[in-house]
Amino acid sequence: MIVIISFILFVFLLCHFAQDDNKTDSPKTSNKQLNAAYNERNDKTVKEIIINTRDKGQRIDKYLSKYFSDLPTSFLYKMFRKKNIKLNSKKIEGNEILQEKDLIEVFFKDETFYKFKNGEGAPEYNTTRDIQLNVVYEDKNMMVVSKEDNLSVHSNDDEEENTLIDIVTKYLHDRNDEEYLRSKDTGFMPALCNRLDRNTRGLVLIGKNYITTKTINEMIKNREVEKYYIAVVSGKMPEYEEKTLRGFIIKNSKSNTSTIIDKEIEGSKYAETRYRVLRSQDDYSILEINLITGRGHQIRAHMKSIGHPIIGDSKYGENTVNRLFKRNYDVKTQLLFAYKIILPKGLCEKQEIKISFDDIFPGKLKELLD
After folding, report:
1. Which of these three, 117, 148, 174, is where a domain ends?
2. Per-residue tens of pLDDT for the chain, all 370 residues
3. Measured between alpha carbons, how far is 35 from 42 in angstroms, rounded to an integer?
4. How far apart, in whole angstroms, are the C-alpha atoms of residue 154 and residue 195?
């Protein structure tokens, strides 16, 4: 009898400890983790955008910047990197050209998606600087503004505040520009039609609506828009000389510099630059340059290739000459100015838009004209 009771007690205790062990190894913790992961994953539901005939042919970053009217460029590229926005189920670089029936998948929270879509998210411009925009020409459809130096025309992947396009957008926003407001409702924001290096001053074309922007871009591509620059270069050149420079330009991404070469190689692009010497002095010359092809750093690289780099250019110039002109003429940046644009007839009221020499050579720089 005692043996039976002891056996029953042993079985009871064994079952009791087994239940405790089961509690210790209970799957509740892992279930919580799975549920949390599931909820976190499903917190961002996929939204699909299918590209139609009207929207094809655009770069995906430009299209999405218009589709999400209040989405900062930096945030957009961050979403590309994190694969929260995909194109045809693949990671996006940002420069892909959209084709009809392409599928864009957007993994945003509902709240985030509709805030940016409906214009309730971040402000449409990213600037804290109260800069007086120098508007050289403006009509209903387009603008031409004069960019100062040390100013980027647009943000890069790392997001830069106070870019030219931010300042232009703020200008139109503050003025309640009708075309800006109308285009914004369709998902379009003001867009650059030509670009200048950060330290190049001068004229920049801006479209207020999609049709005008597309038209100007096609005209530039077809070389129907003439772009002229004034450059002050190192060394004495033959006065009134006119010449066309031809070659191939290749970029070194690591140093962010370009080199002109005689023969085409893989990765190079054809480059053509025409110049006319306006004034020639012992240690510098002033040129009018007609940019035929618009490659990155083209003028700067071409002038260096013939032994007459632009004065003040820290990448392509001569340090000794740059220091001399900084001391004598207070030159703090490259002396390259996008000063004149000639547009095809019918695009706008003015066919020739330009900056005066007084604006190109302010302060001590005026002495270069003496």
Report:
1. 117
2. 554 545 555 545 445 444 444 443 333 334 443 333 334 334 557 888 999 887 889 999 888 888 886 677 777 887 888 888 999 999 998 889 999 999 999 988 777 777 676 554 445 555 545 567 899 999 999 999 999 988 888 766 444 567 898 889 889 988 999 998 888 777 788 899 998 988 899 999 999 999 999 999 999 999 999 999 999 999 999 999 999 999 999 999 889 999 999 999 999 999 999 999 999 999 999 999 999 998 999 999 999 999 999 999 999 999 999 999 999 999 989 999 999 999 999 899 899 999 999 899 988 999 998 8
3. 10
4. 9
Helices 178-185 and 164-174 sit at what angle, rounded to 10 degrees? 110
Beta bridge partners of 189: none
82-119 per-residue burial string, b: 16 or more CB within 10 A, e: under 16: eebbbbeeeebebebebeeebebbbbbeeebbebbbee
Residue 115's nearest CA partner among 165, 161, 72 is 72
Q: Indicate if 243 and 319 belong to the same structural domain.
A: yes
CA pair distance 169, 191, nearest whole angstrom: 9
Q: Which two tokens stand for residue 6?
A: 């002891």
Through-space distance between the first and last CA atoms of the chain, rounded to whole angstroms: 126
Using CA atoms in the order 245, 248, 252, 258, what is the torsion angle rounded to 10 degrees? 10
Overall residue count recorded for the chain in this entry:
370
Domain assignment of residue 48, yes or no: yes
Residue range(s) defining the domain that contains residue 63: 42-117
Same domain, 240 and 332: yes
Pair (211, 103) in one structural domain: no
Distance CA 352, CA 370 (A): 27
> Is the same domain home to 234 and 359?
yes
